[in-house]
Amino acid sequence: MEVADVLNRVLFVCLGNICRSPLAEAAFRHQADAAGLSFEADSAGTAHWHIGKQPDPRSQQIAAQFGVDISGQRARQVMEEDFRRFTHIFAMDHENLEVLQSRAPMDMTAELSLLLDLVPGREGEAVGDPYYGGEKGFAVTWRDVWEAANHLVGRMV
Length: 157
Ligand code: 4NP
Known about the structure:
The protein is of the alpha/beta class. The chain has a single domain (14-156), classed as 3-Layer(aba) Sandwich (Rossmann fold). It contains six helices and four strands, in the order αβαβααβαβα. It has helices at 3-6, 20-34, 57-65, 82-85, 94-103, 135-156; strands at 9-14, 40-45, 88-91, 111-114. Strands 2-1-3-4 form a four-stranded parallel sheet, sandwiched between helices. Helix 2 runs parallel beside helix 6 (135-156) and helix 3 (57-65) crosses helix 6 (135-156). The longest helix is centred in the last third of the chain and has 22 residues, at 135-156. The protein binds 4-nitrophenyl phosphate. The site of 4-nitrophenyl phosphate has 11 residues, from loops.
């Protein structure tokens, strides 16, 4: 089976689904669309705190600076069905990867990994949580998720 066939339903996961994973989803969608790929992409949080909310204004701002509108995204929590529906689930950091592993049903078919495992030389690294910091952190997040999405798209074309 071609990589393109198996890497087509991807879920990006952080803690709140308002800062990092919305940007990861957006960076991936943007580049996958540009590459003409057919895919399914979504993002979710392991926590329930922000369900239904728009992405953090700082995430919306950094995406907008790069011409990507994420204002239509709404936060949701990871659910059991995600582990069967998606082929790949990418966690932003180790804590969220561990939570995903602990919640995974016995019959899960998705492959779990860290997002930055996609980037040669950055395997095992986390996309740092920018929530409690300044806007500079969001620029770092955007750079990280853009780079990872670029490698993901590169594996799918
Ligand atoms: P995210 O960032 O996991 O990248 O969406 C956070 C969002 C909210 C909180 C923590 C991190 N919070 O504590 O509410």
